[in-house]
Design a protein that fits this description.
The chain is an alpha+beta fold and 353 residues long. It has one domain. The chain has 2 helices and 16 strands. The protein has an 8-stranded mixed sheet with strand order 1-7-6-10-4-5-9-8, with no helix packed on it. The chain has a 5-stranded antiparallel sheet with strand order 2-3-11-12-13, covered by helices on one side. It starts with a helix and ends in a 7-residue tail after the last strand. The model has no long low-confidence stretch (mean pLDDT 88).
Length: 353
């Protein structure tokens, strides 16, 4: 065989390509690399989803605690720091949001009906049977508008600004350093000199976007103590404040997506409003103080028999415990993530040692 032919055969052998075994090995290695890349991608995706769900749960807890704690800290208070409060709303004892004398703070243990506020049940907006509820009334939640003058005979309170934001039908707390009063605004003016009026009567449903009727006032006199028969009048001092009255009950209820959420119900529409998704349970405990000694243990609402301002043992701290659940199945075994978080609130307007 000539040298030229030998050279051509050698070149043909070199150009013959991969063998079948070599191709299979290459494909296997490629699959291993691709599998590793896919696994890393899926792991990162799962980790990202878990972190996102955790962030949402933390934000839900932060928002829930912030909203409830802010109201709890101001329970029973007013902008002036007055120690006594008159309540001239008509038939106040018949409505949970107006019944100041029953207690500005009132808890309901799991399974105990919050009668007249929200029903326990399985319907949307109804309270779950295993969750506590908390009612909070306050006159110190919002910035007050300073009083420039008050005519007790006509019930006209002159305010320091025409931009006071009050309209007829609003519930307000009027206060100075001597006392405070809960009343309904029967007329409001934003022309010339800003003012509100708290005349007797005034029952209406005139507030925009509010479906419930307003009770009106039993008396034009708003001095303490309340007297609906013979008006107990006095003029509140300039330098006092008028502020919006706040009344809310917080509870865990069923949302319209088959899950649970934190809800709030107030006096405007008396309809539950979903506030925070993913809160599946709430436990609330309390510490009381009898004027001399603070209780050693936390107790639930069932152990407190008297929530009124005259009770010997007054609640001075609230412990909120929330169980949260992620909306996605990003936990172990493709189950939702769950966390339990606790927040303790001291009540500013209650006497503590």
């Amino acid at each position: 065989m000539s040298a030229r032919r030998t050279k051509n055969l050698s070149m043909l052998r070199r150009q013959a390509g991969f063998s079948l075994v070599e191709l299979m090995v290459a494909l296997l290695l490629g699959l291993v690399v691709i599998g590793g890349v896919v696994n890393i991608f899926l792991t990162n995706q799962q980790s990202s989803r878990s972190n996102e769900d955790l962030s949402r749960m933390q934000e839900s807890a932060r928002l829930s605690f912030e909203l409830m704690a802010r109201e709890a800290r101001q329970v029973g208070g007013n902008t002036c720091g007055a120690q006594v409060t008159a309540n001239v709303l008509n038939n106040a004892a018949a409505d949970w949001w107006a019944n100041w004398d029953a207690g500005a703070l009132q808890g309901f243990a799991a399974g105990v009906e919050a009668t007249g506020i929200v029903a326990i049940g399985t319907g949307v907006g109804e309270r779950t049977n295993d969750s506590a509820a908390l009612k909070i009334l306050s006159g110190g939640m919002f910035n007050g508008v300073p009083i420039a003058g008050h005519d007790a005979a006509t019930g006209v309170v002159t305010l320091s600004t025409v931009n006071h934001g009050f309209v007829a039908g609003n519930y307000v707390v009027i206060c100075d350093t001597e006392s405070a009063a809960i009343a309904q605004v029967t007329a409001a003016s934003a022309a010339g000199v800003g003012s509100i009026t708290h005349a007797a009567g005034g029952a209406s449903a005139a507030v925009p976007n509010v479906s419930t009727a307003r009770p009106g006032n039993c008396s034009i006199g708003i001095n303490f103590p309340t007297n609906c028969v013979t008006a107990n009048t006095r003029s509140f001092a300039a330098g006092g404040y008028v502020t919006r009255y706040s009344a809310n009950t917080w509870f865990v209820g069923n949302n319209d997506r088959g899950g649970r959420s934190l809800f709030r119900v107030g006096p405007d529409d008396l309809a539950p409003v979903e506030v925070v998704e993913g809160v599946i349970n709430m436990t609330i405990d309390y510490v009381t103080f009898n004027g001399t000694t603070m209780a050693n243990d936390w107790v639930d609402a069932a152990a407190i028999l008297d929530w009124s301002p005259a009770a010997a043992d007054q609640v001075v701290a609230v412990r909120l415990m929330l169980d949260l659940e992620s909306t996605g199945n990003t936990g172990t075994d493709q189950a939702p993530l769950r966390r339990q978080l606790i927040h303790v609130v001291n009540l500013r307007n209650r006497v503590t040692p």
